[in-house]
Amino acid sequence: MQHTYSPVISSTGLFTPEESISNEELVESFNTYVANFNQDHAEAIAVGEVEALAPSSVEFIEKASGIKARHVMAKAPILDTAIMEPRWEERSNDEISVLAEIGVKAAEQALSRAGRDVKDVDAVLCAASNMQRPYPAMAIEIQQALGIDGFGFDMNVACSSATFGIQTAADYVRAGNAKSVLVVSPEITSGHLNWRDRDSHFIFGDVATAVLVEDASMAPAKHWNILGTKLKTVFSNNIRNNFGYLNKATPETVDAADKLFIQEGRKVFKEVVPMVAQMIIDEAERLEIDPAGLRRLWLHQANAGMNRLIAQKVLGHEANADESPTVLDTYGNTSSAGSIIAFHLNHDDLAAGDTGLICSFGAGYSAGTVFVRAVG
Ligand code: COA
């Protein structure tokens, strides 16, 4: 008889940068930049040639997004009004690159939590919004640093990269092409964020997560059955970043805002909430799961209001923090890592048989659902 494979989540790992920027620190730096800009351009502003910049506010940020702080890899240059971007010493090709380094840290934690020997891991997917370089793939560098004999590749589906990675890994397991796959999401989102843009300067933070997807036959006693995965993409320009080697910066456009993250936040909010809520409800029906009976939702962490609305539509009532935990307050939006951080920090208390949902959504648009059930 042919063996059938059942993909499960064996463990997860999390790397959190030590440094963190509070809303107060962020707004103080931003408003100093605004005051300096307005002073430097006072004459042009007075004659209407240049538009004065408006200050940011701690109250707005927290009310509009639920974000109170964000971890970053390089706090000082981000807050320095002469720089306002992350910077660190350039590393030689013989040193591990910074994105791979934090991915390795998260992956090591996932491996150790599962008691997994690297000899038994077959593949590494680096699934994240912003790769440090085009090639060699970040995944292959992570694979080599961990000592894994197998294969690796990068995939980018913006904020949905991790759930797309989990389905890809689960499909490898289902097909018998791999039995143990690491999905690593190192998100140094501070690099694509425009720290001078009032509308978005507060959104993102840095982090790395890892998910170990394996065949049930080799998983540790405590694991999560993957009941079903579903992916969806619909093209939209409402979240966009034109950075790339075919859109090279010229001296005139070197600071061009469109080479960084840009969004129409209101439109994203309005269009994505109903799309994702419906997708979850349809997929629950296909899997014969009562959405109202879901024990916990580990939703993408972009905006507290979006999560409140999605959870309400899915559960049929206003979700409390136990049903839909947030990590937005301390991590901000960490792109594809958000729902995995929420899962990593909030799953130990669930009992065998409890069913939950990991769900991502973001640029593309893209959305992914992973329904899971606790075992052991
Ligand atoms: N400080 C103070 N006021 C600000 C501000 C800031 N940093 N940024 C914007 N404002 C002002 C605006 O000027 C506007 O003022 P007005 O009403 O006088 O014109 C007001 O606040 C509302 O701005 P708006 O941009 O419409 O805010 P919002 O309530 O839509 O919240 C987001 C903004 C980005 C938090 C919200 O739209 C969002 O989270 N959308 C979804 C984003 C998302 O999930 N993206 C995916 C990324 S991967």
TrEMBL record:
<keyword id="KW-0808">Transferase</keyword>
<protein>
    <submittedName>
        <fullName>Beta-ketoacyl-ACP synthase III</fullName>
    </submittedName>
</protein>
<keyword id="KW-0012">Acyltransferase</keyword>
<dbReference type="GO" id="GO:0044550">
    <property type="term" value="P:secondary metabolite biosynthetic process"/>
</dbReference>
<dbReference type="InterPro" id="IPR013751">
    <property type="entry name" value="ACP_syn_III_N"/>
</dbReference>
<dbReference type="Pfam" id="PF08545">
    <property type="entry name" value="ACP_syn_III"/>
</dbReference>
<dbReference type="InterPro" id="IPR016039">
    <property type="entry name" value="Thiolase-like"/>
</dbReference>
<dbReference type="GO" id="GO:0004315">
    <property type="term" value="F:3-oxoacyl-[acyl-carrier-protein] synthase activity"/>
</dbReference>
<feature type="domain" description="Beta-ketoacyl-[acyl-carrier-protein] synthase III N-terminal">
    <location>
        <begin position="153"/>
        <end position="233"/>
    </location>
</feature>
<dbReference type="Pfam" id="PF08541">
    <property type="entry name" value="ACP_syn_III_C"/>
</dbReference>
<feature type="domain" description="Beta-ketoacyl-[acyl-carrier-protein] synthase III C-terminal">
    <location>
        <begin position="286"/>
        <end position="373"/>
    </location>
</feature>
<dbReference type="InterPro" id="IPR013747">
    <property type="entry name" value="ACP_syn_III_C"/>
</dbReference>
<dbReference type="GO" id="GO:0006633">
    <property type="term" value="P:fatty acid biosynthetic process"/>
</dbReference>
